[in-house]
Amino acid sequence: MTSGARGISPVVGVALLIIIVTLLGAVSATMVFDLSEEREPAPEVALEMEVENASAGEYVLRHDSGETLDGDKVEILGLEDPDTIDEMRFVAGDERTVVPTDETVTVIYHGEHGTIYTLREFSVDPSLGSSDDGLSLPSADEGCSWVDTESDGGTEDVKVEDGLVVDCDVTTEKIVEVFDGGAVTGDTESEGNAIDVDDGTLYGDATAEKVVNVQDGAVHGTVVSTTADVKIDDSYVNESIQGAKVVEVINGGTVEGDAVSTNKEVKVNSGSTVEGDVTSGDSVKLTDATVEGDVYIDEGDFDCTDSTIDGESCSEYDPKDPDDY
Fold it and tell me: Which residues form the Archaeal Type IV pilin N-terminal domain (predicted)?
């Protein structure tokens, strides 16, 4: 008896097997290839970032060691220019000056086949290059090493003059003088003597044991004399002033904060303005002045002529109880 079913011939079977094996091989190769794409390694590189010029808000991004980076594949978030190394090969030893705009700077590498790696994150201060009131700072001529040499380690007078810009805190036991366009982008302190500013600018607090005198200048910070007078003459202070003795704002001077004397008189005259409050441990005298806040003094110790206090004239205004300051 002959069966009606037909089997696959050996030749056809072998051919089919070859086709199946080939297809499986192709699929396996594709899968392996895809997996290798996904596992493309991130570049091994050591990057560093540090302050280069604080007065200008500048940092330096440095390639310390490791693989060369193709700048076209690198994006740096949190910078004024995120493509700062675009179109260059960033190799060990290279560095770029950068200006951060955020508190975190992130270096991102865009690899082949859509891979993205975060190579490094840096915490920075984007407020460098501006004072507390947002004022842009001038570019520095000298730094802390100059201050140390000039003051002989904080024991001698320091003179910042003739347009010199010093980017550092200036602290000494002796006198600090800032004249003729000189500027300090940092705090200024005389631990045993005075601070004298004449046509100069301080971008920071000014603190002295003795007199602080500011004439035709500006202080973007507080002004404090711990034992003596404070005098603001045709000058600008964007925060408060305080002295142990006489405190004066004269000849069109402006103080955006309070004017305080702990033991002696406060004088505001000749078109000058105090935008905060005025108080004294002795007396207050206003002549052709504007006080936008209040005056805290006993009525018998208040002398007011042709002035405005909290929007009121001398005759309309009643000084506040000094205990309420």
Answer: 6-77
